[in-house]
Amino acid sequence: MSRQPSQFIGFCAILGLVFSGLGFSLIGPGLPVPVPKAAGRPTPERTVSVPPGLADDPALGMALRTLLASLGAGWKLAGSPGAGGILVGEIRQLPAELFEAAPDLRPPDEPEAYAIGRTFWRGRPVLVVAGRDRAGVIYATLRLADLARVDPEFDRRPAVRRVSPAFGLRLVGPPLGEQSVDPERALRWGFNAVVVPPWTGAVDYAAFDPRLAGSDAYRTEAAWRAEQARRLKEAVRAARAFGLKVFSPGDLPSLPESVVKFYGPEVGENGRLCFDRPKTQELLRFALTYALKEFDLDGIIVRTGENYSGPPLVGQPLYVAWCGPGQPVVDSLRTLLKLEAGIVQATGKVVIQRAWDLGADGFHASPAVVRAVTAGLAPEPGLILSFKHTATDFWQYTGWNPNLLEAPDGFPRLVEVEGAREYEGKGVFPSYVAPLLVTGGAGPGNPLGRARQAGAVGLWLWNVGGGWGGPVPRSDLWLDLNAYAVGRLAWEPDSSPVGLAQAWAARLFPPAAAAEVGGFALASPELLRLMLYTRAYADRAGPWTPNNLWVRDDEIRGGYNLVPIYQAVRDREAFAEAVAEKEEARLRMREWVRRLEGALAGDDSPQARAVLASAYYQQSLFELLADYFTGIFYFYRWAETRPAGAGYRDLARRRLEAVASRLEAHRAAAAAAGTPFRDAGMLAAVRDALATLSDSAP
Fold first, then answer.
1. pLDDT at 102
2. What pLDDT score does 156 carry?
3. Which of 27, 387, 513, 590 is most exposed, with the fewest beta carbons within 10 Å of its own?
4. CB 161 within 8 A of CB 23
5. pLDDT of the residue at 125
6. Is the pLDDT of residue 664 over 90?
7. In this predicted model, what pLDDT tens digit does every residue of 570-622 receive, in sequence order?
8. Are residues 267 and 361 in the same domain?
9. Which of 137, 163, 189 represents a domain boundary (last residue)?
């Protein structure tokens, strides 16, 4: 029986939420893809038909195995394109008559594009998975596997989707390359490039100056240098096997100690490198070119605003390494961009120059500095400027980086996103980043889409990394959520964060539980805003350290960090709001624990245990932080208003006396989820406050 149009549209609306998270949209009546009626429809063969040899490719084979696992029992691969239930292949490999009958099933012309949809072929209904190229087939097959997990009836839905990636470069990996990225997971998330280990220690400078080979100091570093090269080559080989591009990060300027000693004042003075000196530039030009060619890299990532070089490498931030006259920040960056442009032209490779530096008035955050640095420089397509999506570091309350929303200099841009958000738990509990990417930009519209329109050619997800300490999660469940969602947004920036969260949860949990787990993820940005930030302070402080780092990484800090927050919220309404934020976060977290316990009752799967463990961890942390923050604030209020504010004395005492036991409870609750948050001045602040309260008259 055919549905009436109004019923069909309603049916589409119900499914739209699920499909929006998977990159599918339903078509309405009248579009040209034929949809068979339910009555009398032949039962399709349960085969996935692929051209010969397709399954032998490592990446394509992985994608097909993933699809078969999602389809369930009874599905099998067929070696030739017979009348199977699903036809998979590049457009040039599939029968031409498929696209004559359903021209909308032709994938877009862009690289990696694909189309998925239903049609009739040889008298049978088939689902066609057509890629513009090999990569398009891989991404389409993996996307279809996601849909099959969510909707068992997917192969009967009148769905069609033609997709090409919004960002041609979709990079995943930690900012310093310190942890390898599984190529299979990168593909499953939708990325086409990975970060590999750093290149800075793998360069053989004896290829630049053979005299170095005779230096005892340089020979002493040989084993270390060989190990860096081995790790880099191994990671490149692993990524290449799956068809992924590779990018290696490094801090500049950096040189081996032996090379600095060999050249002496030609490269530095008084213990620092001098980037403005010709020999230093010559060495770094060689090093960048050597790494790109020797290790078969697609590109290099350069950071200059911070420098973590450790022995046997030496280095400083670029502006510190400007020893001559002029403006250190502007002149050093202009010189480096010119050097990098020459390398791009000579090698045909990519150099990603990270804009990152500290503060709110440097190359990363200030459009004025970017204009000064790029003025008069001709953009080079392979020379990309990379900015965090936040105006400064990865906090809430910073807004979007203005240097991504406008790019009048013409240099292509890369958008950096932190998945293991360093100021919000690093994945030990959810900190869902997708909503922050599609809202919050100055001006109307989706800021990620606006960044693309302004010249962003790529997106880089730090799936791990960032920050200094812990916590270290036992499960990567919530990190997978961010990688899944950001990977989808890199293809389609207009995807709904709601749909993405629910689609991710539906892959792991039954429907009722998935709704609650997805809801918990969606609630996470607001929960963390209420507990870890103070609106009245953040509005006054501006985009740099809007929480004054009273909690940073896994550290809970002391009064030095809380006093400025209190001083900013001393007026009555702001003070009441600051305290209420923490109490509201505490109450909401208690409610989420109750809801998750109910939704996951009886589910002993690893993912269910991980969700509950993270919820108990977060609840115990929120109880601790709420008592600490409000207790200290009541103490400050009492000290400032006594004797008139004597009522604050008891409020402060009750909360502060609970802090020690709250910390122990958090340590106990944390064991199943990850390493706990730790005292970094909190207990000293509490002891001092309680001592003052005890010495005072009631």
1. 87
2. 66
3. 590
4. yes
5. 83
6. yes
7. 999 999 999 999 999 999 999 999 999 999 999 999 999 999 999 999 999 99
8. yes
9. 163
CATH value at residue 147: 3.30.379.10
Same domain, 118 and 201: no
- pLDDT at 80 (0 to 100): 62
CA 367/CA 413 separation, integer angstroms: 14
The position carrying tokens 């948050």 is 677
Per the structure block, which two tokens stand in for 683?
């207990």
Helix (H, G, I), strand (E, B) or coil at 389: coil
Question: From residue 581, how far is each of 32, 529, 630 by CA, in Å?
Answer: 53, 9, 10
Tens-place pLDDT, residues 509-553: 999 999 999 999 999 999 999 999 999 999 999 999 999 999 999
| Contacts with 185 (C-beta within 8 Å, 6 or more apart), sequence order | 483
What number is the average pLDDT over the span 146-160?
75
| Same-domain check for residues 321 and 371 | yes
Cα end-to-end distance, the chain, whole Å: 80
Instruction: Please state at what angle helix 572-599 crosses helix 606-641, rounded to 10 degrees.
Output: 160
Assigned domain for 512 exists? no
* Closest to 161 measured CA to CA, from 120, 201, 80, 102: 102
CA nearest neighbour of 621 among 580, 688, 574, 674 = 674
Query: Is-above-0.90 flag for pTM?
Result: yes
Domain range for 550: 518-695
85 and 186 within one domain: no
Task: Name the region of 233 (left: φ>0; alpha: ψ -120 to 50; beta: rest).
Answer: alpha
Interhelix angle 511-532/606-641, rounded to 10 degrees, is 20
Name the residue among 138, 104, 144, 139 with its Cα closest to residue 19: 144
Cis peptide bond N-terminal to 435, omega within 30: no
What single-letter DSSP state applies at residue 104?
A: G
Residues 57 and 190 placed together within one structural domain of the fold: no
Distance from CA of residue 25 to its chain's centroid?
25
DSSP 614-642: HHHHHHHHHHHHHHHHHHHHHHHHHHHHT
Cα pseudo-dihedral 622, 626, 629, 635, rounded to 10 = -160
Q: Are residues 149 and 188 in the same domain?
A: no
Q: CATH no. for residue 340?
A: 3.20.20.80
What is the rounded CA–CA span in Å between residue 190 and residue 182?
Answer: 13
Q: Are 281 and 275 in contact (CB under 8 A)?
A: yes
Backbone angles phi and psi of 37, in degrees to 5: -75, 155
Which residue type sits at 383? L
Q: For residue 508, is it within any domain?
A: no
Question: Is residue 670 one of the residues assigned to a domain?
Answer: yes
* pLDDT over threshold 50, residue 413: yes
Residue 597 is encoded by which pair of tokens? Answer: 């316990």
Q: What is the pLDDT of residue 500?
A: 97
Examine the pLDDT at 75 and tell me if it is beyond 70.
yes
Number of domains in the chain: 3
Judged by DSSP in three states, 388 sits in strand
